[in-house]
Amino acid sequence: MAKIIAGIGTSHIPTVGAVIDNDKMHGEYWDPFIKGITPAREWMAKTKPDVCLIVFNDHASAFSLKNISTFGIGVADRYEPADEGYGPRQVPSCEGNAALSWHIAESLILDEFDMTITNEMPVDHGLTVPLSIMYDQPEEWPCQVIPLYVNVVQYPQPTGNRCYNLGKAIRKAVESYPEDITVAIFGTGGLSHQLQGERAGLINEEYDNDWLEKLVNDPMAVKDISHTEYLRETGSEGIESIMWLTMRGAMDEEVNEVHRFTHAPVSNTHYGLVIMENKKKDEK
Ligand code: DHB
Ligand code: FE
Questions:
Q1: For residue 281, what pLDDT band results from cuts at 50, 70 and 90?
Q2: Which amino acids are annotated catalytic?
Q3: Is CB count within 10 Å lower at the N or C end of the chain?
């Protein structure tokens, strides 16, 4: 049986990707960042999930405003890095796992989550930057990748609760797949940031830290937070945090936290990283 072995939350700041790609991740600005992500890289190298199922938001890179899907899943054999305006990032393309993708798509749709099925999509910084954060600069990504995207670009956005329940359905889907493979589920984006308008540059560390503590240890306390509260407290792009709720829904209610790191500012964002594992049977 396939198994979800970990939930990973991380911001997906494009600058982080550019700095890694250009071998510039050193010096006063980046030293605390690299120190904070190193334990996550070590954990990843030790744990070696077969598949990374990455819940992220496309930033109008693969999809335009002509068609907006609330939830969608890639079912391709391969995903190329998107051209976001400066040419595609010079990172490996992602090998998919079409059989597992189709299994998850079927299970989710029969569970009444109406997924868009995507045969081809370029993947933007929302997916590729988290891979760089966790794996640095390998020749090939050491895992297969399944992209699962959630709309936050166009209102109305799905609720946190719906995302949390989608996570539960994803877990059921993965755990009913007959092959013995390990899956790490990512939620990417957030934490607080606003990239435009009068409040551009907004960061709310106090709110984020409280939210993150609850996400890990008391997810029921954050799954019903309203869009208005995210907008007010975490800025217009802080809503990306609902990706993390999808990841959290795929884990047990009580988890072991393996690593947590936050730092502000990184680019325009309060950077957050968390890794959690389900408790072993004898720990419960
Ligand atoms: C930044 C963060 C994001 O999540 C994003 O999609 C684009 C930019 C930033 O902090 O610069
Ligand atoms: Fe983003």
A1: confident
A2: 125, 193
A3: C
Tens digits of per-residue pLDDT, 62-108? 999 999 999 999 999 999 999 999 999 999 999 999 999 999 999 99
Tokens 């997810």 — which residue? 219
| Structure tokens belonging to residue 188 | 């990417």
Pocket test for ligand 1, best of 84, 191, 240, 267 (most atoms within 8 A of CB): 267
Q: Compute φ and ψ for 128, nearest 5 degrees.
A: -80, -30
User: What contacts 260, CB < 8 A, 6 or more positions away?
Assistant: 212, 216, 273, 274, 275
What angle do helix axes 31-47 and 125-135 make, rounded to 10 degrees?
80
Q: Which long-range contacts (CB under 8 A, 24 or more apart) does 84-87 make?
A: 84/14, 84/59, 84/124, 84/125
